[in-house]
Amino acid sequence: MSGERDESRNSGEGGDGTDGVLAGVGPRLRRIRKEREVTLAALSEATGISVSTLSRLESGLRRPSLELLLPIARAHRVALDELVGAPPVGDPVVRAKPVERCGRVFWPLTSRPGGLQAFKIVEPQRRQEPDQRSHEGYEWLYVLAGRLRLVLGEHDVVLSAGEAAEFDTRVPHWFGSTGEGPVEFLSLFGPQEERMHVRARPRRE
Could you give the residue ranges of the DSSP H alpha helices within the chain? Predict the structure, then answer.
């Protein structure tokens, strides 16, 4: 996967507090994995990230990125914030910090470990060839503004503002810009048994 390519570390990158936050990610990844009694090999199989990359992340030799942390958070069924530093105990406010990945901007909207994980995502206007992927879990999408193309197995649909879709992520899928303009949408991802019963209407030719 694209997250497998090596990235050189830059200790001066990120500003005043960023390096301190990133320095704590490795030990936190190791602690969470050990608590769950998961081996590096098992985590590698669940995420598609190589054992060597996972090992370098935990030892601080690899700079963490959203592309690497998202599948790890999903495999452990924890909030992304738990991997990078949770807000103070008892604080109900989710202090979302946007992160860019592959041209998309993500805002994490949940902070509790396990269960459903929510993100607001902004996708720029662009044309892409769908690259369908599959993994364990269940996903729900809701379009806030613009139009979102969803390719799910043999289905190819377009969702407009106010429309939603849900699907088993074991089915090969891809979603992104229609190429007509940017799109802003919510993504909720959860374990296999957690489902929201809202269906999208298919695109009419």
Answer: 18-23, 25-35, 40-47, 51-59, 66-76, 80-84
Work out the angle at residue 165's Cα, subtended by the Cα atoms of residues 65 and 155, and round it to the nearest 5 degrees.
Answer: 95
pLDDT in tens, 138-166: 899 999 999 999 999 999 999 999 999 99
Computed over every residue of the chain, the mean pLDDT equals 78
Contact 121, 157 (CB under 8 A): no
Q: Which residues of 146-173 are buried (b: 16+ CB within 10 A; e: fewer)?
A: bbbbbbbeeeebbbeeebbbbbebeeeb
Question: Full-prediction pTM beyond 0.85?
Answer: no
Q: Are strands 155-160 and 117-123 parallel, antiparallel or unpaired?
A: unpaired
Q: Using DSSP bridges, classify how beta strands 147-152 and 104-108 pair: parallel, antiparallel or unpaired.
A: unpaired
